[in-house]
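A quick aside before the break. I want you to see a complete sequence-to-structure record at least once, exactly as it would be stored in a machine-readable document. Don't worry about memorizing anything.
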Amino acid sequence: MAPLIPSAKATLEYPLYACDFDPADSSRLVVGGGGGAGRSGVGNKITLLDTSIATQLQEIGEIDLSKNEDNVTSIAVGQKKGKATVIYAGANSSTKDIEAGRNLHFRVFGIEPATKGKGKGKDSEKPLSNKISEISRSKLFDSREKDTYQRVLRLSKPFPDQPQLGAVATGFAKESEIVLFDTSTLTPPNSRGAVKLSKEAVDFDFIQRGEKEYLFAYCDEYDIYLKKISPDMDTSLPEEIYVTPASRGSEKVTLPNFRALRFLTPEFLLMLTNIHSNGGVVLQILRIHPSGKGQCRISQSYRLPSSITKATGLAVANLTPPLSPTTPQDYTQFVIAVAGQNISISLFKVDLQIMNKVSMVTPIKPFRTLNNVHPHQITSLTFSNFTPPTHPVTASTPPQYIKLASTGVSNTVLVHTLPLFPVPLSMKRGQSRTPRYVVALPSMKAIVGLAVALSTIGILIAAVLVQGILEVRGGVPVRLNAREYVPLRVQEALGRPYTFPSGYEGIPTGVPASPIGYNHHLGVPTDVENDINADSLGGSALRLPEIFASLQPTPGGQIYLHEHDKEESGIKAAVHDEEVHKGKSWDNLKHEQKKLWLKKLKDAGYWAEDMGETILKGVVFGEIGGVIGGAVAQAVGGG
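That is the input. The structure line, written in tokens, reads:
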């Protein structure tokens, strides 16, 4: 059976630190990394992988970078420029150039189809089908520090005929900064200003909300800032929209710190937070004030399982993105991936609902955890860009998927393929007439609930079957009245006594075996023809109804039961003769006599509680345990 989430894995020749999908083609994944500057012998490279087959990754392009320079630390794939798909990357220059103040950390590469070749698999050496070449390199940071590098690189979602913005942030810099640019030019990119920071930026993100209008959010460990970007507001200062409580006090307290952020919509911001001292991880959705000023409010919050003590990465995908920056966001589902320090990836989903033009988000729901994804630490995480198919969706529409890529320092890259399916829409709730897609995987809570329900049903069915079998065998009190529903042939098969293997010799006991096969298994009839005395109760395994029927009394006649010392069971039955037999009917017996007779019959194996006392009515009983009963028994035996 195929897995619900198929995956493909490849091991390259160098450690990987960054990855990103081609926004125009989700089957193309770009990864980068390397051994850095030095004599490690591990090169620095950027590799293009084909992910069109859900269970296989194929190398279709690669570029070797200088071993004298640093490894690739960040990657983002942009739009096409002519025939080339543009790759933006961060890689420091050589140590010599950095010391001279020429750290050209911002690199631009282009992917173009090669003239020949169909690709290189893991075990083949065929020519690659794509050529990756460097277009330009430039310096965007003002910092001249030797340890500064380009730690974060992000691009805004591309729209046709719209400028695409990007930003880079410093790492290990004493004077941290974020530099904004647009991708209209490549050599060098067109600058859109810089934000000087008192603390190093942990993460940032863009979202476009109109023609050439963007929101840019970034965070440090404790605070979140928002900046509006437009042709008229490029120089505006960022607004502080969230401050972690107690982070401004002079007292030293343990505080959670932000690890990553992503826009869901212009109104909602997703935050990934690590609790102090590896105490756990929390996902929070913040609602931004419509003015872009003032403190955010927490709309939803979810704490990850205790097995995840620290998060290292975050990725988000919108399954029904707007078709243009001026189109308002409609009903949609967001898929969230969180990389944990325990080398796991946790998957969540959140629905956006629109009620009377007011946007609301549902609680964050986990639906799958991918354990032991890589041998060592996960370094990057990204979703492919999902574009819903042209509407309407029909039976001929192919299955839809979204891909999740992750890389590790263990030279490994892994791509998981998540199935999607369209959901019916409710026009009463104001949803659009075009169908939307959601994740086609049940949540872990639903799976556990279904498993518990099925197990409970299975246990109940097994209990009913066992109770019915034991009732047929007469081993338990009647609760289900199974004999009324089970065919006689089945009852006979179930009621047979236990048998032993051939050649088995029983353990000798002091009780001699009865030559007539006396049997206390109630409900197990024996052959009446083989009985020594059919009108005698001794040695018979028959119940009272069969015994009474065998005597064949005349119509209106009665059966007479009395004690008899010569019978093995101590009881004998005969057709009642008023001149010879003296006794009392069941209803006229004293309570003590009834109890003695019931015990006598039960010990002999001729009566059970499930038979009731009705069968004993109409029967004449001799006195039990008395001289009169013994005298009568002798008279009957003599006759």
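Two observations worth writing down. The mean pLDDT is 83. The helical segments are 95-99, 444-473, 488-495, 544-551, 591-604, 627-638. We'll return to this after the break.
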